[in-house]
Structures are given as structure tokens and as C-alpha cells.
Amino acid sequence: MRTTLDLPDALMREVKIRAAQQDRKLKEVVEELLRLGLKATGGAPEKRQRPVVKASRPARVQAEEGSARKVPQTARKKVAEEAKRPASSSPPSDASVIDSSFPL
């Protein structure tokens, strides 16, 4: 796997010198040093168990305007269906814009 690391120049110089002295590739020496470091510290840290909090009722979450949140599947379907419908070529008539229940 390829990755990019930002290491101090002095540290990189030491690793390159070690690789040259041992007549090995730089990546081999870096891999060995990483493995030795992990072994010395006990390997990768254990995953912490997150606490479980039981509530008496489901939580209500209100997203603030402009915040990112997942759109329910039904809303996604509705938007997709509306996008498939052909757009009306003519503007709406005045009758369709005016609410007949509103007194003039």
C-alpha cells in the first residue's frame, strides 16, 4: 500500500543511512522499524467500547438549518421521481397561482 508521510529531515536521513549501511531498500528498513516499534509498544491499540446509554424514549434530533444530515430514503425516491418528470413548457396560468379560498 502506498502512503505519504511527512517526516523530519533528520529522522529521514538516519533511516536512509541505515538502509545504505545494511545494503537494503528504504521501504524495507521503514517497514522493519515500524514493526519493531509496534511490537515494543504492544501492537495496535485496542478498540475502545463506547458506552451504551439507554433512554426511556427515543431521542428527538433536530438539525439546524444548513447542517448536513441524511435524507430519508423516501424523500430521495420522491426527488428522483420528480426529476424524471418532463418540465411543463408553459408557465402556470393565473388561475392555478391564485388561491380561491383567499377572499379578495
Query: What is the 3D form?
Result: elongated
Task: Catalogue the unreliable spans.
Answer: none
User: Hey, roughly how much beta strand do the residues contain?
Assistant: under 5%
The gyration radius over C-alpha positions equals: 31 Å
**What is the tally of beta strands?**
0
The biggest sheet, with number of strands, parallel, antiparallel or mixed sense and barrel status, is: none
Whole-number average pLDDT? Answer: 75
Order of secondary-structure elements: HHHH
Structural class: mainly alpha
Question: Helicity level, as a percent range?
Answer: 40-55%
Terminal-residue CA separation: 72 Å
Number of continuous helical runs: 4
Short précis:
One of its GO terms (biological process) is regulation of DNA-templated transcription. The protein has four helices and no strands.
Key attributes of the depicted protein:
single chain; 104 residues; mainly alpha
Notes on the protein architecture:
Helix content is 42%, strand content 0%. The protein has helices spanning 9-21, 26-40, 73-84, 94-97. The chain starts with 8 loop residues before the first helix and ends in a 7-residue tail after the last helix. It is elongated. The model has no long low-confidence stretch (mean pLDDT 75). The protein is mostly helical and 104 residues long. The protein contains four helices and no strands. It has a domain at 9-40.
